[in-house]
Design a protein that fits this description.
Elements lengths: L16 E5 L2 E6 L10 H13 L8 E6 L10 H8 L4 H20 L4 E4 L3 E3 L1 H8 L2 E4 L4 E3 L14 H9 L1 H10 L3 E2 H7 L4 E2 L5 H13 L3 H13 L5 H15 L3 H11 L10
Parallel strand pairs: 2-3, 3-4, 4-6, 5-7, 6-9
Antiparallel strand pairs: 1-2, 7-8
Length: about 270
């Protein structure tokens, strides 16, 4: 057991719903009357939660979803958009850095993030979905990067870096230049969604997917997530060298030994995440 001091894990939230059960954290954006928009406070609290996961040994996967049949309608029009129109440039920069920090924390935490996306998923909501590792949508899901529609550039919260890597340059350009809606079927065909589910089952399917990951080698899964992020900026040769080091580290885990022993005994391995 590690003797290193660890900060207290985050287990409560004021501006979104949070549950942690058996290693799985479920984050629910829960302002269903307004299709779950974000506020200054929820941006801050979400960022703090994902930051805390970097030092939380008891959470091994995260599901992000929205309440009431929608994922997220982006920034609240009257609680965020209207105040932004009167802010100074330094204050505006502080805000855009705050929103970007949430995405950085989502990508930096070692836990896989699975998004269960139904209904409206636009603006910053689409970015949160994009920053997740796995996206499960529905046929009625409506994804739109709406920044162009309000006179802003599509380069918001990392969209110009991440979206082309998910759907390709031409398709990303189409979505970011026009702000148009991408439906669920189109989103799956383009690779934005890993799969589609029935609306009444999308959260259950995302939770089941996360539970399958929890049954796997969770330390190694965290290494996979980190290497996917790091290798975006590497040459192939550098990536191969970095993966050699990462894989050698994983070969020293108890899970690697467990897998060998289970294979030798013709059994299914039971991983412990260590």
């Amino acid at each position: 057991m590690s003797r290193l001091p660890r900060p207290a894990p985050v287990r409560t939230a004021e501006h979104f719903s949070l549950t942690v059960v058996d290693g799985l954290a479920t984050v629910t954006l829960n302002r269903p009357d307004k299709k779950n928009p974000l506020t200054f406070e929820s941006y801050t609290e979400l960022g703090a939660f994902f930051h805390s996961l970097q030092k939380d040994p008891d959470v091994h996967a995260v599901v992000v979803t929205g309440a009431g049949g929608n994922f997220c309608s982006g920034g609240d029009v009257f609680e965020i958009i209207e105040p932004l129109t009167t802010m100074s440039v330094p204050d505006l920069l502080a805000f855009t850095e705050l929103t970007g920090a949430l995405i950085k924390e989502m990508r930096a935490c070692p836990q896989p993030i699975i998004a269960a996306i139904d209904g409206v998923c636009v603006g910053a909501g689409a970015i949160i979905a994009m920053a997740s590792d796995i996206r499960i949508g529905t046929e009625r899901t409506k994804v739109a990067f709406l920044f162009n529609k309000v006179g802003l550039a599509g380069c918001d919260m990392g969209a110009c870096a991440m979206l082309p890597r998910i759907v390709g340059l031409g398709r990303a350009s189409d979505l970011l230049y026009t702000g148009r809606v991408m439906g669920g079927i189109e989103g799956e065909r383009w690779g934005f969604f890993n799969r589609l589910a029935d609306p009444e089952k999308v959260l259950a399917d995302a939770t089941l997917y996360a539970r399958d990951l929890l049954a796997g080698p969770t330390f190694a899964n965290g290494v996979t997530k980190r290497m996917i992020a790091m290798e975006w900026a590497m040459s192939i040769n550098d990536a191969i060298e970095a993966e050699a080091i990462a894989q050698a580290l994983c070969m020293k885990t108890n899970d690697f030994r467990r897998a060998f022993e289970a294979f030798a005994a013709k059994q299914k391995p039971i991983f412990g995440g260590d």
